Amino acid sequence: MASPDLRERLRRLLLLVPYVAHHQGVPLEDLAAFLQLPAEELVGELDFLLMVGQPPFAPDDCVDLRVEDGKVYVELDQAFERPPRLTALEALALAAAARGMAEGDDGAIARALGRIEAALPPQALRLYRDLLGRFAVARPPGEAKAAALLREAIAERREVELDYWAESRGEVTVRPVRPRELRWAQGHFYLSAFCLTRGDDRSFRVDRIRSARTTSRTFEPLPPERRGPRVPGEPPPPGKEQERPRLRLRGGSVLRYAEERFGAAAVEREGREVGSVTLSGPADAWTVSFMLSFAGAAEIAGPPELSEAARERIEKTLDRYR
Predict the structure, then answer these.
(1) Rounded CA separation 182/193 (Å)
(2) Which end of the chain has fewer surrounding CB within 10 Å, N or C?
(3) Residue 165 contacts by C-beta under 8 Å, 6 or more apart in sequence?
């Protein structure tokens, strides 16, 4: 059995695949020495990697590793290789998708188009720019406007009043909500929010929002003497900046990812390899899951109750393996 330290094992496995890909036919003994593993443990790790993928975990679905005559070879799925160079028409399709999914967020469109152009070879770039000026992506103007307003309300923690088309009842109702996030699912944008009318979490399809208005009401916490039991499902109030969830990050690639996703202003660097990011959403279970997705390269920096929630989640997970 390999080291019980799962984080170290993951890093070792992530190193093993690209190393063998660049040293095809490396002797098993040399690879074991490089990874500082006994040869028999290395064989077990190779067998484990064959089962990586999606259920039913058929061997070689994702990575095909084999040992022949004491030498190790790997055949990689395309997802592990360098991405193919885009043609002008492929880039144009990506640009159309970016414009369609940004929903009024000009900053997101600009970032997406900049990355597309950076991936194009010079000849394709000239044709792409020529084609880009000849088309426009049609979007429902009301939906784009509502999405931009909702993003601003999420960032500022402001309540919003929605004129929402309830398809099941065939009528428009006014729904005051506390918006959490916009997400893309099943071909539509959805708003995740706490509905003050229903007193519970709800999802709203953005294309069914007839109009939206921000209010002057924010999610400020009540003073201690007025606090009562929180309605089940209601997001905790954000309050002051230090009460917002913060993650401490390690690794240059992790920091760059955070800057691309949340904006450079949200990330405070303490050097090339260490920094922190302040999230605009509530300090809830999603934040804990997001932190865990970094496989040890992120940890909760605050608030304290979120750190405690993360500790409990990790302990419950480890209990299943004990």
Answers:
(1) 9
(2) C
(3) 171, 172, 208, 209, 210
235 within some domain: no
Rounded CA gap, 231 and 150, in Å?
A: 23
pLDDT of residue 146: 79
Last residue of a domain, one of 194, 226, 258: 226
pLDDT at 234 over 70: no
Question: b vs e for 134-169, b when ≥16 Cβ sit within 10 Å of the residue's Cβ?
Answer: eeeeebeeebbbbbbbbbebbeebbbbbbebbeeee
Three-class SS of residue 239?
A: coil
Instruction: State whether residue 218 is helix, strand or coil.
Output: strand
Q: How many structural domains compose the chain?
A: 4
Q: Hey, what amino acid is at 110?
A: A
Residues 6 or more apart whose Cβ sits within 8 Å of residue 14: none
Tokens of 88: 């002008």
Print the domain residue range for 119. Answer: 88-132
Bridge partners, residue 298, by sequence:
249
Question: pLDDT tens digits, residue range 245-272?
Answer: 888 898 888 888 888 777 777 788 888 8
Q: 163 and 126 share a domain?
A: no
Final residue belonging to a domain, choices 164, 195, 226: 226
Same-domain check for residues 278 and 312: yes
Contact 124, 91 (CB under 8 A): yes
Distance of CA 233 to the CA centre of its chain: 22
pTM, full prediction: 0.34
CA 11 to chain centre: 20
Question: Hey, is 183 helix, strand or coil?
Answer: strand
